[in-house]
Amino acid sequence: xxxxxxxxxxxxxxxxxxxxxxxxxxxxxxxxxxxxxxxxxxxxxxxxxxxxxxxxxxxxxxxxxxxxxxxxxxxxxxxxxxxxxxxxxxxxxxxxxxxxxxxxxxxxxxxxxxxxxxxxxxxx
Length: 124
Known about the structure:
The chain is mainly α. The chain has helices spanning about 10-15, 20-25, 45-60, 65-75, 80-120, and strands at about 5, 35, 40. A 3-stranded antiparallel beta sheet has the order 1-3-2. The relative contact order is 0.09. The mean pLDDT is about 90.
């Protein structure tokens, strides 16, 4: 990874997040930018963490789960524990997403059937 540093505005733009989101991630200790006076700068570590945070959010993980998972990296530089925990988290989330998909399919079918009943009732 290069030694690129992004300022606050560039970090928001790069990841298409609002300033409020970025400040919140700092507040809950997902990110720890370098500070020079009032300015914040995000190095390669923070850019990588932000990539993982947003990927985790996309997959439906809670911010606290993501924070705890990211903290494991410092405690286990080889990453074995972090990998195992991620696999466990992924398995649990896959089960949840599959269950939600089944539920959505049932709701779609029910709505489609009701729509068809109403449509057919209109035909004389």
